Amino acid sequence: MLRSTISKRSYSSNKNVLSTTITTTTTTSKRFLKSVSISQASLSTDEVGSSAGNKDYNYTKFFTDLKSYESGLKRSYKKLPNTSVHYSSPNDDIYRSLNSRIIVKQWSLLEACISTKDYLRAQFILDGLYNLCCDNKSDLSSFLDGINQYLASWSIDENVSMDDLSKWMVDVKSKYPLLVPNDRTFAILINSSINKSKQNQNDVLNNDFIHFILEYKKSSNTESLKEVLKHLDIFGLENVRYLKNHYNISFDEIPRELHEFFEALKGNNIPIENINKKIIEKNLKINDEEEKEEKEEIISAIKADVKSLEQDGVGKNLNTTSTEYFANDDIEIPTLRKDSETLKGVDTFGLKVIRHSLLGLTSKNKLQMLKDFQERLGSNEILPSSITMYTNTKNDELLKNDIDFYHIYRTLQNGKQREVFDAVLEEFNLERQRSLEVRSIDAASEKWKHTYEMLAKNNIMTNHDKNINYYLYKWYVQAVELVKEEVQNCKNLKEFEKSKNLTPEQEAQHKDREIYGPYLTLVSPEKMSTICILELLKVNAASNISSGVRTARSVLSVGRAVELEYRAQELLKSENDIYKTYRSIKKTSEFKKLVTKSTDEKFRKLLNRAKKDLSNNQFTWSPDIRAKVGSVLISLLLQVAKIQVNGTDPTTNKKVTGEVPAFYHSYQYVSGSRIGVIRFHPDFEKKLTKEDMNSAIAPQGLPMLVKPRPWENYNSGGYLYSSNQILRSKDSIEQQEYLKAVSEKGLINSIYQGLNVLGDTAWTVNERLFKIIVKVWNTGEPYLEIPGIVSEPQYPPPPPRDVDPSIRRKWKVEVQNLANEFSKNRSLRCDANYKLEIARAFLGEKIYFPHNLDFRGRAYPLSPHFNHLGNDLSRSLLIFWKGKELGEGGLDWLKVHLSNLFGFDKVPLEDRINFVNENMENLKDSVMDPLNGKGWWKKADKPWQALSTMFEIYEATQLPDPSKYLSHQPVHQDGTCNGLQHYAALGGDIEGAKQVNLAPSDRPQDVYSYVAGLVQKRVDLDAANGVEDAIKVQDKIKRKVVKQTVMTSVYGVTFVGAKEQIARQLVDHFPDELDLKFASEYLARQVFASIRELFEAAHLIQDWLAESAKRITKSVSLDVGETDAEFLSSVIWTTPLGLPIVQPYRSMGKKQVHTNLQTVYITDPFAITPVDSRKQMAAFPPNFIHSLDACHMLLSAVKCNEANLDFASVHDSYWTHACDIDKMNEILRKTFISLHEVDLIAKLKDEFDRRYKGFLQVISISKKTEVAKKIIELRKELSAKKGAPITSSDELHLERERQALLKSDDLEKQKMGQQMITTISLIENEDLSTLKSKTTSDTLKVFAPFKLDPIPSKGDFDVKGIKDSTYFFS
């Protein structure tokens, strides 16, 4: 992965540069690179070779000096602790230290020490990090972030005086001479001085304070404190105002977001302290008290939520207590009081947890929210009855249901009312969103406790065998004590060190605690115990229960969950004075008179900025730390996790009861390897169902009630209280570094804008569709794609023991198929149940879906269970929150959309509209009686979405003027095999472009039917010539037979894959497996040939992309460095929107980590590992196309937002309101044209030529060629001069020496380089295409300069013609 280059400290300052050697591995190409050991810097031309005046290069001296040089490197291995390294290419100027693994681990350890206030150890870590970071500008910037993080915590310690702060500033300059404190550093120092002045009751600024201000102004060469004061997460409101009153700062120096606030205070002269002093003081409590209060609030909320729901009669049993639904599997958990029928849930623990988590949506202070809305509007506005029925009533029963905010919004009478309502609702939902994201962990342990106490109180402990929560709480209580003890041991390490009589086991444990101890103290034992239990249940739910869960996966999962909880805690703490004070005082009557409605949004932006600063200072825990933390917690849990089981005494035959481990650690063999697993006891397995329990521990995965945190940085955006990365990257440091580099340079702002547009699109749940689906669901019968309830699979009776073996095998196959079908249907029903439960909880709510990207740039919602990327059922349940009048053409677009949902989309738009017009009676019947009528809607390809659309069409047509109908239905515009559209634009294929609707046409073209026609012609010709396979399939070629293969050809489907796709379509025609095999193979060849015929230029581009990837991944850099000469270069390219795409396919290295449970082998993201050339080559063409369609979508999103359109997408399907389809279509065409007006392939080649310039590729040439004979002869001569066989490493050294001479400013040295002969110089001017070998025995592997083939010629299609294509997207 990593490529070494000369240290930024420079070769000239230390000629003995750090280098190591690593043994190479196998494969044909790797064997050529065997025994390579290359220094990371070129040998100096002043040191190596004969004098510049010599005519012949002195190879003997070269090898002598090289041997001495390498010996010196080994001797000086530890002299230079830091060197810069590059990734796939030195030409990208993206460097990291060879000590990256150490640095990252030290950063996270520093963060842990700061959080636990171990400042002494933190200072030692900082000293060490400075030595490792001082050579790298990027690392030095991170070091300054670490300094600021340390200072922000240390400076507020009560034992730190103002003199200490001044002394610290002096010490920093002395200890870290290359470090330049920034505005945040001074913000921390100034703020701490203010606070210490207040603590001393000294209201006059002292000299230290002034000193810091003057020091800042001097270092920054400015008289303004504007940049310092922008760090409101440091100062808060109080100290900004303190500065304004006590120091001569101008109003312009105050952040713009606070101008309105301070203007209001200035005009009224009301001190903040007098607005509501008690509330402010309450919000400024120390963190421990805040956590305690928050926990109490959660407990109260659980009790209050459940109690109110029980009183309302919700649930199966009116007398059910707040805990019985967890104690008894026969009792359903209460659900939110909605104007909807309650769902009959799948009886699973996971579902109970998600229902409980959703109780966080209970609307508190909802009546006050409506009154605030009234007050903000003013008395002149006439409000609809949907609001006054609540605000004017004294009927408590009316307020028992959750308020349907969507219904209220629809009844508002003008734009002003809707705008104000949206603003008030956003403010109201902020607290609800906070509760929804952070309640899960504490709520889980509390509900276990209630379960246990209820069982004890009612003396029904015998029911434990029916209940999971009984055990979970028992384990939780016992585990908490063990975790507390372990945490205390970690805190007492210094006392432990004084003991001299330690056993080897104790010493090993002590060393381990030094590693994981600081991390184990970051989260409370209660939360860690809960996390460990829930995370084990989660990984078990996603695994094969019978074979257990791999230990490595379990420990990493638990460790990561603890890290995420710590991150969430830190984000909560970031809501400091800047927001907490405002959130409290804004509710007071005095403050409401001062500040306008826009202030709250401004404060939200300030809060987001504070969280962004926090995200920038976060360092991910290394995998070995996660593994150690996870293993400690799991090992402690294993000690207490016991269940009672019933059995029969083999001696007495009496029934007995005993305790056994619920899960245990053991080993098993997989593919010959011994791996550790966590196994669950069979009795405990029965209490769990194999389903996704993610929502049990990650409520952040639910839709949001407020706009997501905007993406402004690569690691800050999305949910409010969890740390999210913009890129879904798995163990690829290289991807993260490239992303970080472009983000810091501001090169991907368009990416951020596009994702923010997607996240800011407001949705709501389609209530009328939901009510219909619930009625179907609650019958338990199968309906469309919803499986029915089947309690147990019905297996056929087993055959007699003496039956024929073939019959028994047939019975086993039948039983296995039935078991698989049962498992599949139950899984589908559980998945549907999750979606419906979430949908029900969000009825009437305004919701959002934050998005991030996969490594190719494609956008996905962060909410995994319920979103618009789901199936037909999920999509039908979502509509736009904002409604828009249909306008002139909106009704027709609704009809086109409905026709498309029926699959009637290969005809002109007029025919699609007529299709709906002709079926208006069927449509009316479907709307009036969807479940008992004729059921025309069920004939649609996507029936649930079709029914949703029918409701709007029917309602619009009932109005005197349908154009005035307020539509909320998303209308889709889909591309025609979008991947082929991009290929056709790239290749300029005229006929191909026409068939995928890039060219104007009076009716939509169907590329699948066209290819089927081409295949038919080929088959007819073969059949006429007597080809047997052609005769057999001649009458079986239909559109559906070729569709999937045509669709996936652009994404790199293999011949085997295409054969299987076609076989699935032909299976009914060929019952004989052998006939099916030959027929599908024959047709697969014909389909591929027909696609190539239609998209000839596009396929030449596809071939060029694959060949380019092959050459890149089979090449090496001249400065390959201290690694072995493995192929380390990934295929990397930049999208038109500036996003770097790094293909992550490598032979991932494994790292051995010793844990409390066992030694585990985990992926080491810092390991220097070779690329997987086969995967890189196969994946590049489809990934490149995916990156283009992602750019088109994000660019369209930004432009649609600029045009005030609501926008959503599912990759190449773009959604907006019916009235805006024409506008969106115009934008889609313009953005596609702007994307492809540039020759993207030529641009890609230029980027590759720059990135991989100077690389050498390994090629095979014929030994019979003249150049091969010369290379063989030169190798013999060089071996003789070296006194040993020359290696490929030697060849690279020589070529690097030649290049250094050629690039010298000394003309004599240039001449010497020109005279120098290497194996590469012999071949660099040859036409490589004439040197290819025809047989393996005739092959000679050599290095040759990296060179790509010329790009294929482009066809004559003009992409600008797309603007006139009606059916490009339709």
UniProtKB/TrEMBL annotation:
Residues 431-760 form the DNA-directed RNA polymerase N-terminal domain. It is found in: Mitochondrion. PROSITE patterns: RNA_POL_PHAGE_1, RNA_POL_PHAGE_2. Keywords: Coiled coil, DNA-directed RNA polymerase, Mitochondrion, Nucleotidyltransferase, Transcription, Transferase, Transit peptide. Residues 272-312 form a coiled coil. GO terms for biological process: DNA replication, synthesis of primer; transcription initiation at mitochondrial promoter. It is an enzyme of class 2 (transferase). GO terms for cellular component: mitochondrial DNA-directed RNA polymerase complex; mitochondrial nucleoid. Its EC number is 2.7.7.6. It comes from the Eukaryota. The keyword Transferase applies. One of its GO terms (molecular function) is DNA-directed RNA polymerase activity. InterPro entries: DNA-dir_Rpol_C_phage-type (IPR046950), DNA-dir_Rpol_phage-type (IPR002092), DNA/RNA_pol_sf (IPR043502), RNA_POL_N_sf (IPR037159), RPOL_N (IPR029262). It catalyses: RNA(n) + a ribonucleoside 5'-triphosphate = RNA(n+1) + diphosphate. DNA-dependent RNA polymerase catalyzes the transcription of DNA into RNA using the four ribonucleoside triphosphates as substrates. Belongs to the phage and mitochondrial RNA polymerase family. This is DNA-directed RNA polymerase. It comes from Pachysolen tannophilus NRRL Y-2460.
